[in-house]
Each structure stands twice: as C-alpha cells, then as structure tokens.
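Hi, does anyone understand the following?
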Amino acid sequence: MNNSPEIQARYEFAAEISRRAGDLTLQFYRSEDLQIDCKADSTPVTIADRGAEKLLRELIEAKFPDDGIFGEEYPERKGKNEFRWILDPIDGTKAFIHGVPLYGVLIGVELAGESVIGVIHIPALSETVYAAKGLGAKYVWGDRPPRPARVSNTQSLSEALFLTSEVRTFEETKRRSYYDALQSAARLTRTWGDCYGYLLVATGRADLMVDPAMALWDAAALKPILEEAGGTFTDWKGERTIYSGEGVATNGLILDEALELLK
C-alpha cells in the first residue's frame, strides 16, 4: 500500500508545496506593519497564516481534487476518497510574530485514518524534513541535495537534549512536575519548540521533545517523520497516535525512560 503511486505522488508534492507556502510567509516575516488578529481561542493569527493555508488548499485541490483537507485556519473540506491533508500553515505563530526563525509549515497526509506522510519546513532557516511510511525520511538544508534523516544514538536521558515548546503549558495543564522531572533527568533542556524541536529530534540533533497540549494539525505530520527517521512519536502513555492532544518524540532508545517519568 505505502509504495503505491498514490502515496508517492503526494509524498514529493507535499514537500514541494510546503516550500511554496513557506516562501509566502517570508514575505511577511519580520515585517514592521504585520497585522495581528486574535482568534476565538485567544491565539494569534496573521495574514501570513491565512495566506499560506489558502495557497496550500488551492494547490492540493488543483492536484488532488478528491482529497479531503483539514486545516487550522479554514473549515474542513470533506474528500471523496480516503486521503486527508492536515495543514498547519504556520506552526509557531508567536515565534513568527516576534521575528524568531523557528516557526514552520506543517503538512500531514492521512490514508484511511492512518498518518502516512509528513512534512516540516522551516522557511527562515531553509530546512525541511519529510517522510512517507515505508519510504524513509529525507532532510534538505538550503540547496544541498536531500539526505536521509536519522535520529540520534543517545542511550539515556542523562546524556540527552530535552526540548519542549513552552514551560507554561505544563503549568496550565497541571503537569509542571513532569517537566521538572524530565529537566532534572536530562543533560540539557531548551525550549527550541514548536515543530522545529521535532525536526531536531528527527535529524539527530536533539533526543527528546515533549508537549503536554497539541492540536491535530500540530501532530499529524510528526508521526511518519519520526518513525521513518528511526525514532518514535507517541502520546504520554506510549500509544502511537496523533489524536491524544499531546506528544512525545524520541530517538527510540530513551522512549521507555521518558515514559516512566510521564506516568
């Protein structure tokens, strides 16, 4: 199934359109007159978020008119087949607003409810990691040719770089003690978060990323990327899912140790 022409066609196309959406966001990146609106859930949104998702939807609909589309900024478009695209046009809007280059474009593709394709593209750093189930994970930096994306060989949390998106989220979800336990166990802790942290795990530069609250569009791209790079993406109970509203990404070798601290 995963080596089918349908999967392969969407695999490379997803990486291609992530770069096109990323280029659109760069037109507004570090703009002095960027207008910021507040959504109903009090999170920020900009013309770049909306424009990038609109572009992605137009490109997908033109290429795969029967596929479904679920994104952060616009209503879901029901499909006529079992493929569904899950879009986060700017993951890390707060970073984007502040001119921090760690925001990214996230694209996930489901087939019959299973996440089979994922893309993380970091426009301001010109880094992309993308994967399809059974086809491996690729990493591209700038104009360099793609190379395999592989997780680290770190054997224990005491040697690990642990990342998260925001410490306050642990407090808001009444899980601060878990953050403290992970930070105490890890060699180094940083908040190089949002999707960039997961890219770092997938490319072997970090070993563990934990978030206590995630939307579906935050998680959908991550599972195929981490698994094809040799690592894991699970919820806090160790289930391989994008639907739990939380996430744990590891190099696989320290998964059990991390989950033990998240019990």
User: Anything to note?
Assistant: The longest strand covers residues 83-91. DSSP finds nine helices and 14 strands in the chain. The chain has a mean pLDDT of 96. The CA atoms of residues 238 and 256 lie 8 Å apart.
